[in-house]
Specification:
It contains 12 helices and 13 strands. The chain is globular. The two termini are 26 Å apart.
Length: 382
């Protein structure tokens, strides 16, 4: 940068917040909670629970399907908690960046709904919609606002309300259920993997006094969508998902629902290939010196399942990119996979764990199977 140009500011996470709806739901209770398709237990579901290693999770639905909260409502609660942690008020907020896989409305964006739920006055907002990595999309937007001097208090928040899509009535009568009443694997696995909640971080140009902050060194996002068909998607059938003119909006909502083109789906065979693409980006970061594994004190890596972590470790363990597992921190067994909200729920728990010490370097990694994306965020405890 030329010396006469604008000076970019340092940015610090000064507050973290999370919201998990309702009491923890155990594996034994979860299928009764989300419901049984045509009243039958899921064989795939039992396999998914062994695969993902999740013991408890949270839902914003009651066991009889009653809505207890909204995505925007949960996200607003996480924002409020993060502002309180930063010792700020809602009136201090200048920029709100939100992330989600699916908001409460098709239109307008998630950020507008969260602002309304907060009851906030006029401010700048930005909505980021993808899958898990949308959290870091929002974080980069919020970070750059503060870094460029456009805002002094910026919040990045993420929320998910996946369980509302998992009730039996969402699948029954569609092409996703076969003649024997069995739900397609692409849909059924996700019912036992995803759950609800929200998280948020506050960013400011100075660390907070009298407590720990996290200096944001950099945020990198890499999309590989040009190389892959959608791996996790909603809005098209499995066979047609690579074609944009197959989107549900072309057929109309009734026909698309009947074809099973509205439900959230996952291609697990493609996922095995996408994992290797994520690792390829990670290795490039190490080769170029962006990540120096020996200098990372804590790793918060979002992954949807214990078996996925084992796959990642297996690919990394004989490379220079491996970060010893004793440095890894996760809340997956207790809070489940909350999509885009997972990384902030994890960070909030990490900051309360007693593990971070001044000078520690914390690496956040968020891979996304949506259409093959991965994000990295490097932090320093101050």
């Amino acid at each position: 940068m030329n010396e006469s140009g604008p000076r970019l500011r340092d940015v610090y996470i000064t507050g973290v917040g999370a919201h998990l709806p309702g009491p923890p739901v155990s594996n034994e209770r979860m299928e009764d909670h989300i419901g049984r398709v045509h009243g039958k237990g899921s064989v795939i579901g039992r396999r998914a629970l062994r695969w993902n290693g999740i013991a408890t999770r949270h839902y914003a639905l009651s066991a009889d399907g009653q809505v207890l909260d909204t995505n925007a409502g949960m996200t607003a609660r996480a924002v409020s908690a993060a502002l309180e942690d930063a010792r700020l008020t809602l009136g201090d907020l200048q920029h709100l960046a939100t992330a989600t896989t699916q908001g409460d409305f098709l239109v307008p964006g998630h950020a507008a709904a969260v602002q309304a739920e907060l009851g906030a006055g006029p401010l700048e907002i930005a909505s980021y919609q993808s899958v898990c990595a949308s959290a870091l999309m929002a974080a980069k937007g919020a970070w750059l606002q503060v870094r460029a001097g456009e805002a002094d208090v910026s919040v990045a928040a993420a929320g998910e309300f996946s369980s509302r899509w998992f009730r039996p009535a969402f699948y029954e009568g569609t092409a996703l259920v076969d003649a024997k009443g069995r739900l397609a694997t692409e849909a059924d696995f996700l019912r036992f993997t995803l759950s609800d909640g929200a998280g948020a971080v506050v960013m400011e140009p100075l660390p907070r006094a009298g407590g720990l902050s996290l200096k944001v060194d950099w945020i990198d996002l890499t999309s590989l969508a040009g190389r892959f068909d959608p791996c996790m998607w909603a809005g098209s059938t499995r066979t047609d998902r690579a074609s944009m003119d197959s989107a549900w909006s072309h057929a109309g909502p009734v026909a698309a629902h009947a074809a099973g083109a509205v439900a959230l789906l996952q291609d697990f065979e493609l996922l095995k290939i996408v994992i290797r693409a994520w690792i390829g980006v990670w290795l490039e970061k190490v080769d170029h010196g962006r990540i120096v594994p020996d200098q990372v004190d804590h790793l918060l890596c979002h992954y949807s399942a214990r078996s996925l972590r084992e796959e990642i470790v297996g690919l990394l363990e004989n490379t220079a990119a491996m970060i010893p597992e004793e440095k890894w921190f996760t809340t997956l067994p207790e809070t489940g996979n909350i999509g885009s909200a997972s990384i902030w729920v994890m960070l909030e728990a990490f900051m309360r764990s007693g593990r971070p010490k001044p000078g520690d370097r914390v690496l956040l990694i968020v891979p996304e199977s949506g259409r093959a994306m991965i994000g990295f965020m490097m932090l320093e405890v101050v």
